[in-house]
Amino acid sequence: MTEPAPAPIRIAFAASDRPEAQSARDRLAARYGSVDPGEAEVIVALGGDGFMLETLHAVLKRRTPVFGMNRGSIGFLMNDFEEDGLLERLAEAGRAVIHPLQMDAWTESGEVHSGLAINEVSLLRQTRQSAKLRITVDGRVRLEELSCDGCMLATAAGSTAYNLSAHGPIIPLDSRVLALTPISAFRPRRWRGALLPHRSRVCFEVLEPDKRPVSATADSLEIRRVVRVEVRERRDIALTMLFDAGRSFEERVLAEQFAS
Length: 260
What we know:
This protein is α+β, with helices and mostly antiparallel strands.
């Protein structure tokens, strides 16, 4: 007696607003079928790295695994686009589990705003004046005054994005560390940042906020005129990205460190 064939995987296709992503979504949905994201076993995201972040934020509650295919520009977090063999690719895909950062930001008016960041929490000057920040780690002041364009705390998943552009280190996904990276540090000029245990709680205090206003951003959520920002990892939230066999996220991070 032959065994029944396994039920097909329930896929939801999501696309950025780029025409090539929209067209790819329509063709793939027609070929493989598409369900509502709330019923899906996997989300196939079509776009660039920015859209991958949007999709991961969209699945925060259900935490559905996301398989990205590049229909954008950079695509470091995406797999190559190919219409054939999608079911086989999904069945053989490797998993990369990431944990976001929690940002709590206090403004001059006393309001508190919270958000989650998959890549990084960044503080940036709002005017021509440099920002002045005091940085505390786990209740101990580590840098009394940093004069800079800004500063960020990046996850391993985000270490190859803005953090790398600011000359921060690339971090393997399983390293359990966070990158604290200055943006155009003026004083102390030679400070290049620090690697912190993932359990660390980091507090940024804005010095002279009236004269030197600062904004804080958790991925795409921006809060302006902040006076204090606290950041910690949310280990209780686990998001899953899927990568083609042999093209794991860990391999991409390693290869990036040897890129010329």
